[in-house]
Amino acid sequence: MPKKIENVGCPYCGVCCDDLVVTVSDDGRHVLEVENACAIGNEIFHHASGDNRIKLPRLRQPDGTYKDISYDEAVDYAAKVLVKAKKPLIYGFGSTNCEGMAAAAKVAEKAGAVLDNCASICHGSSFLAIFDNGYPSCTLGETKNRADVIVYWGSNPAHAHPRHMSRYSIFPRGFFTGKGHKGRKIIVIDPRYTDTARVADIYVQVKQGQDYDLFNAFRTVIHGEDIPDEVAGVKKEQILEVADILKKARFGTIFYGMGLCHSDGRNHNVDIAISMTRDLNDFTKWTIMAMRGHYNIAGPGVVWAWTTGYPYCIDMSKKDHAYMNPGETSSIDLAMRDEVDAFFNIGTDAGAHFPIEAVKHLKKHPWITIDPNICMASEIADLHIPVGIVGVEVPGIVYRMDNVPIQYRQVLNPPEGVISDEELFERIHQRICEIEAEEGITQTGAAAADTQKSIVGE
């Protein structure tokens, strides 16, 4: 008899919808129906029981074809690559659980690797601004229950986070927001007239790359000073109108996306957005939140900050200490300077998202992709290791975009023999230890590491 599982988390975007209802077949191997999910989340669940899953690691052969190998052989290959490399890069982690991230950090420390995540090419600039200026944020639940003014700046949740508006920002009725969307004012600020702008009360079309100027204008008006007749393509009258709404809000939240942190100004745009949020708190209550993309891309920032002291771009190649310096230790910069001699792509697609020159440099060296799915990164890899899909076949902790941890559930059994990211990294770590013992490795760095406190987990 089919089994209906409630309160299931969705392994798609940073909203981490945890109200899904999934019906699975009586043998626990097929998803029959998914309720409450968006179209993309729905597809992820049904893909898990599709016929095109890769069920064994695939190793590239001299003629360019792939050959299926066992997990033991794949673990041995990966461990030997890490032992041989002087500066391996372990990157990705948008689509795995925190348990897998912690296990990967152990491997990175043991191998003397650089550990980085997708924030390096998306919200890394937000991290820099938050380091400098703080983060006056809240939970999505607080926004749902309290916010009467919502600002989307440089983000389009109608496409990227399909249920964000219905669960937390525009449409839901909260404890103090019983009228739902009728009691809220929605402002969208974006160079493009997006589908999110279509449901806004006010659309502000800022000129591309001039977000910082517009923030400055808002701050000037909020402080009671005059501004020019037009700033960043926006008329003075509209700036005054929006500033008045912001100051009179009972509770407001600014949701910003990569349209802000990746346009001209980057981290400085986020920095001044935080400063404006602080200014508004002289008058009322305002908060700000980054629209994180992958469902657990907030996870590595939390897990690795606990274990190494840094959220991303963590260089452990010296083996006795860790440090981060975006621009020096970030993945794209390392690849463009051809400083990496082995590349691990975990739960993301560097083949599709990295600049082509970076990919060309990385492809000179061993490239290993760990991912349940076929993607560009898997198709150019020397070794592709399939793993279970977190949130569908593997349970675990994920962090929502507001940094709230959520326990994800397993609803399907993984294909026979397929293991989780966590088990894979634990086995690679064990194999590295065995190889080093067999070869009596006594490099200066390794010896230093034995005499120093562990970077990870201390």
From TrEMBL:
GO cellular component: membrane
Signal sequence range: none
Classification of source organism: Archaea, Methanobacteriati, Methanobacteriota, Stenosarchaea group, Methanomicrobia
Domain of life: Archaea
GO biological process: methanogenesis; respiratory electron transport chain
Keywords, in A-Z order: Oxidoreductase
Sequence ranges assigned to domain Molybdopterin oxidoreductase in this UniProt record: 53-230
GO terms, molecular function: formylmethanofuran dehydrogenase activity; NADH dehydrogenase activity
Listed InterPro entries: Formylmethanofuran_DH_bsu (IPR016457), Mopterin_OxRdtase (IPR006656), Prok_molybdopt-oxidoreductase (IPR050123)
Protein name as catalogued: Formylmethanofuran dehydrogenase
Protein species of origin: Methanoculleus taiwanensis
Keyword NADP appears in the UniProt entry: no
